[in-house]
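debug: dumping io for the single-chain case to check the tokenizer round-trip. Nothing else runs in this session.
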Amino acid sequence: MKSKILVTGGAGYIGSILVPELLKIGHEVTVIDNFMFGQASLNHCCGYDNFKIVNGDIRHEDFMKDHVQDAQIIIPLAAYVGAPLCNKDKVGAQTVNHDAIISMIEILRDDQKILMPTTNSAYGSGDKNNYCDENSPLNPISKYAIDKVAIEKVLMQRKNSISFRLATVFGMSPKMRIDLLVNDFVYRAVYDRFIVLFEGHFKRNYIHVTDVVRAFIHGIENFDSMRGEIFNVGLSEANVSKAELCTWIKKHIPDFVVMEAPLGVDPDQRNYIVSNEKLESTGWKPKIGLDAGIVELVKGFKMLKNTKYGNV
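debug: decoded output
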């Protein structure tokens, strides 16, 4: 069944892969984005008759009322993503990640469906064995994680909602993010050939951006059986430490030098092993492993280098 889908932040890292996939399936997709990064990541979608783009800000309630009323499904991707950006602009983070989402939820009808990306960084360090599943206590530390937890609590009071607690996402995208951990480490391996690690023993879970997109599509197609639930979305083979991740990268870039020094701390104190069994039991399985993702990134970074202020 084809649906009218509203995607906020649809020109971002995940949205620029999700939106064309939704269009290919035949859904009618409206994207709201304020293009704060000057990105042109949806150019390739403009030939679709079932595609509509709106340049706007989700913090304007009257504006949102005009655009949510026709949507059958809402996927709210618009956000200040990650602890560093949220710390840099705390007002922007509060108004976009929390206030605007609460306002949007309040104006939705009960029959409208929401598939919401949240974060597994809210687990903190998990239990004594650093193990986490959807029933584990939450211990959000950063403002990003705290706001996502608050939104999820409100979201789960609605019947027609799904929360996807995303692992750390990696992989190439038309709206690229080099700052994500795997992407960052591979970029450093490609161009610097070395990295200095802090908290190298800290484990976290990872997931390729294309598999995140597949999780959203899976949720749309199986909404009746999944609604009202929270699902971790991660790559079960990739519960690895920062140091172990560097070992994976060295398989593809053998001269990558790794050193450790106590230079910083993880703002979310993420050190956990995450179970993705609940989502996998619904029939979803990731397709892109960490090895394949690293190979993809090495290829991609041959086309992408941050030389804005360089002369080489």
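debug: round-trip ok. The chain has a mean pLDDT of 93.
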